[in-house]
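[job 0412] stage=fold_complex status=start
inputs:
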Amino acid sequence: MSAPLLEVEGLTKRFRRGGREFAAVDGVSFSMAQGETLALVGPSGSGKSTVGRLLLRLTEADAGSVRFGRADLLQLRGAALRSVRTKLQMVFQDPLAAFNPRATVARLLDDPLRVNGVVARGRRSMAIAELLERVGLSSALASRGVHEISGGQRQRVAIARALATGPSLIVLDEAVAALDVLVRADILRLLRDLQRQERISYLFISHDLGAVRSIAHRIAIMDAGHIVEQGDTAAVIANPQSKTGKALVAATPELPHARENVS
Amino acid sequence: MRLVRLFRSPEAISGLVILGLLGAMALAAPWLFPRDPLSIAGPPLLRPFQDWALPLGTDRLGRDVVAGLFHGARTSLAVGLAAAAASILVGSVVGTAAGFAGGFVDEVLMRITDAFQTVPGFLLSLALVSVIGPSLGVVVVAIALSSWTGPARIARAEVLSIRERDYVASARVIGMHPVEIALREVLPNALPPVLALSSVIVAAAILTEAALSFLGLGDPNRVTWGGMISEGRAVLRSAPFLSIIPGIALVLAVLGVYLAGEGVVESSAAREGQA
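[job 0412] stage=fold_complex status=done
writing structure:
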């Protein structure tokens, strides 16, 4: 296998709460290959979302290094950081909260194209239509406001927005958690198709082992800021070693049946 | 939709009617009373309803009160609107910068805001006008100087809450420049509560302008209601109408602005509640 796309070493973030300091993320290390999906799983407050935000520099890390391609992400500033961000995108849990409430679909998709100069001005409306098509939406949706489309459509627009700059890694922060089961299955299928076509890597942050099992190659289980267990998705779900892993598997009732069907 | 609801509330309707009348007065003044309202039009101290060429009488120097009222509406509305626009513009830019930049910039800007807020606003206006000299522009600046702090504080509070939202994080992720994030993503969403303040500011600005004129610090080349009240003060016992008539105009103007502003805020709140 080629050199890893992403190498995280000793990532640490401390927060202050009520005068006491605690480590939300404590010495987390993992690596990801191109075209791979790593699921970051754990209970609420385990620090998994913070890891995603640290990678995107939405929150500043206290220690550690993140090697992404040739750059050390945590050292970048200003324009250099903005240019690396075109390769590193994110989809949020609630697209309604992640979109400017005044924006139209066209503007949401135009922003990344315009800001990064990806597509010349004259071709942008065509590029927007192409993006919509890639995520399975009609280009007629472009003129709608974000309040005028359904939740599933919104999440597809969020994925299209992340795809606009041609990223090699997308952080999916609970990206399917707010969707109903049928829409969730559609979105997961879309994500798998996109990955097959473009070799995009996903960091899939979730507490939903069902969704994780259907999309992730590998899984890392987090608890209290540490990664307590890492391995192939099927192996970890079939036979979790850590206490947190066992608890998560035990708390997901439909999993044993699903496994029987597979074998 | 919004307009329909606006016209359903009686307060909003009466406010808009009053404002409409004042606006019409202000616009019609140069056509209905083409003569300089400061020129002498008849015998001095003519009482109202005596001479139909001068329906509301004349002041101590024989100047037409109706003409003064109409031309005064121009000054009051112009100063009120310009001062409110200036203070909301300055306030929301300062507030957005403070809230968005945070840290040291926030500290400095908010301490400056504190400094302006601790000085009584009217005193500040008074000082500025008496130092620079009375003219319409200076009066507008003087009023704006004392009223931009409210919009600044509200804009900052809004921005502080908005900048933690996911859509701001999302704009950073796609590589948008911080200045563009502040202006395109944050400011437009922080503005509605700031604009809700505007009716209060317009009303206060009209009153401040009248007070400055009353003290003789208004633009001397323009008729103002405050100036007319002040003129009438010398003959308050023999010709009280000279102070009462522009006083009523002032009360109506402030009331109209308040009611209309209240109606607009209410109808937009109802719309949000329904959405």
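[job 0412] summary: DSSP finds eleven helices and ten strands in chain A.
[job 0412] exit 0
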